[in-house]
Amino acid sequence: MVSEIEIHHQIDSYLKDENMELYDLNIVNFPNISKIEVFIYSVEDVNIGTTTRLNKQLNRLVEDLGFEKGSFDMIVSSPGIERKLKTKRHFELSVNERVKIKLIEPILEQHQHSVTKHYLIEGYINSVGNNHITLSKIFPPILLDNSKIEISNVKNAKIEFKQFKEKVKG
Question: Are the C-beta atoms of 161 and 101 separated by less than 8 Å?
């Protein structure tokens, strides 16, 4: 029986041959797999034709690894507009995007007689370094050391797509 790592490697390798990236992979109930969710990234549009084709091809690939046909659901999708950012590569793909970030350790803002702790911040990703991201247009407007946030201090992050939400409300 192959491992989850081998499934990940095979899918990743296949997508690279298709000039795409494996953005995220969720294998449910390994080794008795009930569902495999494959999220793909491409510089070109990912449309229904692409996901349908990849669904069939990746289904066959997993079956060739020894998993019974029809014993699991294969779901192939783009990561979406408000995609989660889990890895350094995810942040790199999101430069110039508006993000909402929850921190593990707060950013402390000093006032005359008190300290405010900020666990949730929003801003635009300017750049990604080895261990940090640099933000601009930060909300709430707090003073950060060079506007840098250590990636290791990020509890979770996602793209914040406010334009769509504003249109829906209005």
Answer: no
